[in-house]
Amino acid sequence: MRISEHNGRIFIRFMVSAVLITVSLSGILLLGANTMLMAQSVDDYVGPSTCQTCHSDNFDEWDGTDHSNAFTDEAFQSEWQSRGRPSGCLECHTTGFDAASGEYAFEGVTCESCHEAGLAMAVNVAPELCGSCHTAELGNEKFEKFQEGIHSNSDVTCVDCHMYGDNHRFEVESKACATCHTDDDIHDRRLILDLQGATLEAEAKFEDLEAEYNVLLNSMGQNEERTSLMTYVAYGGAIIIVLLSIVVAIYYYRYKGA
Q1: DSSP reduced 3-state for 98
Q2: Which of 132, 127, 166, 129 is nearest to 147 (CA)?
Q3: What global pTM score does this model have?
Q4: Up-side HSE of residue 67: CA atoms within 13 Å toward CB?
Q5: Which residue of 116, 199, 217, 235 is surrounded by the most CB atoms within 10 Å?
Q6: What is the DSSP secondary-structure string of 229-252?
Q7: Which helix (H) or strand (E) holds 94?
Q8: Per-residue pLDDT tens for 7-46?
C-alpha cells in the first residue's frame, strides 16, 4: 500500500513538472512569436546602410545589382506606372512593405528582405523565399522551372549556385557548377572551363558583329543621304532646264514676231 502511495506521489510530481515545463515553453514560444511579429513593422527596419557598417564587402557586392535597383529600375517603373501603380508590386520591389498601410521601409530588395527586419540577421536559404517573388509570369516563372528541374530534385537550393562563396551579386559562377559537375559521366572541370571560354569568345564575336552592323547601318544612312541629295539635284536641274526652255521660247517668239 505504501509503495502504491509512493508511486502515486512520484507520478503527481512528474505530471506537475511536465505541466510547468509545457507552460514555460509555451510562454517562451509566444514571446518569440510576438517579438518576430513586432520586428516586421516598417519602423523596425534599419536599412542597408546599417548593415554596411560591418558587412561592407557584402554591401558592395549587392549595391548596383538587380535586387538593389528593383524599385528604381526604369523598366519596372515604366511597367508599374502603366498599370496604375498597383501596391501588390511593392511586395517584391521594396523592403518591409505593409499591405495594410501601403507603406514600405526601403526601396529595392535589401538585406532585410532575406535576413528579416532589424538586426536579427536570420539566414534563410529555402528556395521558397526566392520563389515568393521569382514566380509566375512577372517573375519569368523561375521558381516553377526550378521545381521542375533536376537541381530541385537533387536538393540543390538557389543560393548554392547564385551565392557561391557567399557572394551577394547573385550571379552564377562556373566554380559553383564545378563543385558538383566533376565526374566524367557528367562534366569535368576542363569541359566547364572550355564552355566558359567558348561563351566569352561568343560574346566577343557578338560585340564585333554588333559593331560592324552599326558601321554598316551608318554607312547605309550616309548613302541614303547622298542618294537623296542627288535626287534633289536632278529634280532641280530638270526644273531649271524647263524654265530655261520656256524663257528661250518666249524670246524666240517675241524676236520672230518683231
Answers
A1: strand
A2: 127
A3: 0.57
A4: 21
A5: 116
A6: HHHHHHHHHHHHHHHHHHHHHHHH
A7: strand 94-95
A8: 555 555 545 454 444 444 444 444 443 433 334 688 899 9
Which residues are within 8 A (CB) of 97 and not within 5 positions of it... i.e. 6 or more apart? 87, 90, 91, 103, 104, 105
pLDDT tens profile 173-187? 888 888 888 765 565
Please tell me whether residues 67 and 97 are part of one structural domain. Answer: yes
Q: The domain containing residue 74 runs over which residues?
A: 42-123
Terminal Cα distance for the chain, rounded: 163
Residue 228's identity, in one-letter code, is S
Listed range (7-16, 64-73, 100-109, 247-256) with the worst mean pLDDT: 7-16
> How far is 184 from 187, CA to CA, in rounded Å?
6
Place of cell 523592403: 95
Domain count of the fold of the chain: 2
